[in-house]
Amino acid sequence: MTKNNMEQDIRNVLITQEEIDSRVKAMGEELYDRFEGKDPLFMGVLNGCFIFMADLVRASQLKSELEFIGVSSYRSGTESSGTMELTHELRGSVAGRDIVLVEDILDSGNTLAFLRDYLTERGAASITIVTLIDKPSRRTKVVKADLIGFVVPDEFVVGYGLDYAQKYRNLPYIGVLKPEVYEKN
Ligand code: IMP
Ligand code: MG
Predict the structure, then answer these.
(1) Quick check: helix, strand or coil at residue 155?
(2) In what order do the strands lie in the sheet with 147-151?
(3) The pTM is what?
(4) 3-state secondary structure at position 165
(5) Which neighbouring-strand residues pair with 83?
(6) Residue 152 has pLDDT above 90, yes or no
(7) Which residues are catalytic?
(8) How far is CA 139 from its chain centroid?
(9) In angstroms, rounded to a whole number, what is the distance separating the alpha carbons of residues 22 and 28?
(10) Is the C-beta atom of 175 inside 6 A of ligand 1?
(11) Does residue 56 have its Cβ closer than 6 Å to ligand 1?
(12) How confident is the model at residue 157 (pLDDT cuts 50, 70, 90)?
């Protein structure tokens, strides 16, 4: 018997907890090397970034500030609607700042293209895009991440922050959801 009732909705584990752990540590070290002595502002994209962001900032060991921005294009399906809506505004100014934008997954590119323009308009000095997962096959906007955790095929994944209809974020690994879970909705 498993302790939770989420496992039964997972078709297979794509990236294990151990694989995530070692990759995120390496990404943190990479960011340390890039930003040591600078004063970057880590900006997490809510809600999906919350676990990755927590592990990444600790792995980077940079003396950096944190901010969160909320943006949503998904309703409850698995496709991006393309219309972006800010769900959590920035509190401080980003003018002149080196931003490390932390996202769970880069899919169509709508979210990061929108945020890149949003931060550029507000005077950010530089924007470094860090994504845990890249699904390049689905891109409709021209967006390239500067640092990528894992490249995955075109399958809907959940866990380690990633959700389907706000659930499964607390799975410790990244798994592929059984299609019948979203097809029945
Ligand atoms: P984009 O705007 O299409 O690039 O998608 C970015 C957002 O879509 C991410 O922040 C996720 O919230 C969501 N998303 C895209 N693909 C997946 C997936 O496979 N699983 C869970 N969320 C996803
Ligand atoms: Mg997200």
Answers:
(1) coil
(2) 85-88, 65-72, 41-46, 98-106, 126-134, 147-151
(3) 0.93
(4) coil
(5) none
(6) yes
(7) 107
(8) 15
(9) 10
(10) no
(11) no
(12) very high
117-151 pLDDT, tens digit each: 999 999 999 999 999 999 999 899 999 999 999 99
What confidence tens digit (pLDDT) does each residue in 33-91 have? 999 999 899 999 999 999 999 999 999 999 999 999 999 875 556 666 678 888 888 88
Residue with tokens 């860090």: 130
| One-character DSSP codes across 78-132 | SS--S--EEEE---S--TT-EEEEEEEEESSSHHHHHHHHHHHHTT-SEEEEEEE
Six-digit token string for 176: 């592929």
Peptide bond before residue 47 is cis, with ω within 30 degrees of 0: yes
Strands 10-15 and 174-177: antiparallel
Specify the ligand 1 atom closest to the Cα of 143.
4
Contacts of 130 (CB under 8 A, 6+ apart): 27, 31, 56, 100, 101, 102, 103, 145, 146, 147
